[in-house]
Amino acid sequence: MNSSRNAYLCSRLAGLIALAGFLSAVGIFGYQILFWLKYGIWHPVPLSVVWQAAGLPLPTVSWSGVQKIFNWMFDLTASLGGIGVALIAVQTYSSFRNLATELEWSRKAMTQMPVNEFAE
User: Which pLDDT tens digits describe the chain residue by residue (120 residues)?
Assistant: First the structure.
């Protein structure tokens, strides 16, 4: 398998991750809106709830400042986490897509180069 094909496949995977992140953000935010419309109470869904529902333990560190940063990040709404994942994946998709295009162009350029008859 050539390198441009690998870069193309990586870009497709990053695109799927971006789509999953975006859809999860929309789904969580939609759930919050429906809950608010029905009951009149905003139901926050922090990232820590989603993280623990996936079976992952919350990170703990011995440095109190770093622990406060982790606690703050995991107290953010989960829809922001989904949007963050989507934005990072879109950037990764774009990078791999550009790499695949450049590799394909260079491969085509190498196959179309004229052969020097006088080279030894």
Answer: 477 778 778 878 888 888 888 888 888 889 989 999 999 998 888 989 888 988 999 999 999 999 999 999 999 888 887 788 888 888 888 888 888 788 777 777 767 666 565 655
Going by the DSSP 8-state scheme, the letter that residue 76 receives in this structure is S
Tell me how far apart the alpha carbons of residues 37 and 57 are, in angstroms, rounded to a whole number.
Answer: 32
As a dihedral over the C-alpha atoms of residue 68, residue 70, residue 71, residue 72, rounded to 10 degrees, the angle is 90
Token pair belonging to 67: 């622990």
Calpha distance 15→87 (Å, rounded): 10
| Measured distance between the N- and C-terminal CA atoms of the chain, rounded to whole angstroms | 31
Q: Which amino acid is at 117?
A: E
